[in-house]
Known about the structure:
- By secondary structure, the protein is an alpha+beta fold.
- 35% of the residues lie in helices and 16% in strands.
- The strands form two sheets. It has a six-stranded antiparallel sheet, covered by helices on one side. Strands 7-8-9 form a three-stranded antiparallel sheet.
- The protein is globular.
Amino acid sequence: MRTIAERYRITSPIGRGGMGEVWEGIDLRLNRPVAIKLINSADLASAKDARRRFNREARITARLRHPGVPVVFDFGDDGDLYMIMESLSGDSVGKLKDEQGSLPVPWAAFICAQVCAVLAAAHGADLLHRDVKPENLVLCRDGAVKVIDFGVATSPGANEFSRITQTGESPGSARYMAPELVEGAGASRASDLYTVGCVLYELLTGSRPFESRDLMTEITRGLKEDPPAMEKVPGELEKLTLQLLAKDPGRRPDNAVSVYRSLRPWAHDLPPLPGWVAHDLSNDPVHMYSAVLASLG
Length: 297
């Protein structure tokens, strides 16, 4: 198998990220598993800003020190651009949703509350993720949710509008885009919270708020229509979801912390998720550690 930078040996594929491919690998020097993200140099000719975006993603992800953000160990150029990250034992929330359909209320709240904790850290560091969606969330075997792919992250007020036609934006991302971004406004903390609303709605109902096979139809519905009623969803949780999906950014919740606090009470008595989360985590050392820290809250 190929070895990157004479240190990181590729072992097996994980999948494709926002840009490039992600592989399982081994750090030969430290003898530990890693995830290896690669951008083929041949692809750079079709995306002039790929190198800048990749370098920015590596630096931003490394800058955010939070349990919900994968650790970046290394990045560079070895014929192909590479980023070496923490190996995650889990799979995407998008795959979970495809497998399960709608999730039980406690799981939807549990996942989105963790996302809000990560966004609180990002926003506190003056960063916007801009691409929160189920495929960019990894549910690990211990129940931790990791937010990945900071490739289009930016700072509030930056002159990089998130237009659908902008290089580097994918149709999947456009389906979760806040209405004001579609109309050309700059990204904001409120637009990040809109994406949380999209994810929460999807996990609770099994479908996106304005779902359509046709991308432009879905985007147009997001601009003009109210989301369909959320059947069998508790009223308070539906109200929170619709607040997050408000067309006017000023009518959304104030910040990620307030959304976290609204979701936290719903994240209890989680039913089993066989094949996804370990059945008994009572003696898991990470959970033991976290439980002690939680006593300070």
